[in-house]
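Suppose you are handed a protein chain with no further information: no name, no annotation, nothing but its sequence. What can you learn? This example shows the usual starting point.
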Amino acid sequence: RRGRPSENQGRKQDMGLDGLEVLFYGLGFLLIFAFGVWMASIVAIFIAKNPVIKTLAIMLNLLILSVVILAVIDNAGEQAYEESRYQENDKELLIDGIRIPAGSRLVVEPQMGIKKVPDFSTFSRVEYLHPIDWKSVTVGEMERVVSQYDGHYEATLTTRSGNGTGGVVEVEGWRCRSDNDMLWGVKNENGRKPSNPADYRLLECLLDKSAEVSVPQWPEAMKLPLEKVRYEQLGAYWEADILSENLPYWGKVYFDADKRISSINLSFSQKNLQGCAIADEGASLEWDGKQPDVVTIRSYVDLPEYCWGKKVVRPVSKDGEQGE
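A reasonable first move is to predict its three-dimensional structure. Written in structure tokens, the prediction is:
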């Protein structure tokens, strides 16, 4: 049962507020006192007749002046350190297979010391003075993440056309939109650095709106519109998101390294679809190219015998039995 706050609780709250007020006023008093001492020391330098007091006043002001100078130097050093990140190259560079014409603006690792010599090989971002051609893609900006350890070299690039320009380009068999971010990568276990753009491969891009894929193993001419594709380097396969707009399902299509469809995962957003009558809008379907005549459906409702001409089965549990 809720009740009114007890008197003890009210007192604790008042004590908490009083404590903050005491701390605030205490700090204010210390600041005023310190300022007063400093002003008194300045006055003492000029009017004090006691040499000891005058000497102490001079020493105090020298100490304060030294602290201020050191703080200014430290702040200037930090500012110069941060500013050393931003560089512009005066001659063309070729870094890990990436061409950087003169006049480009780069972000590099900051440099210590008075004589700062920028290490352009550490660049993490470059903005080109004029767009360049990168694997038949017009690029105005590029970001770069590099990882090197134990003889392993890995780099990921993100390219942008810049100024909202770009169009549709054919890259490794995919119709990519270059007006959006495109990801590229290289991974070498022997530690060898890339030497030209051909060493990089496409990792991700947004596909042209006309992109679609046919599923030849299905009895009906089923075409799935695709939105985005990405390459998984670890398993050497492609994964594409289905453009679910105006569709009663969403999901992914998986391709092998040669871009042959290997499997499809669908999640339904409607129930009782034509050719697949399942009274569950949350059901999911898996199709594996190794078993082209079978679909695995996860649902808590009764399932039809066939879905889009495929034999329907439930997923197999850990003990080897099919779920109900």
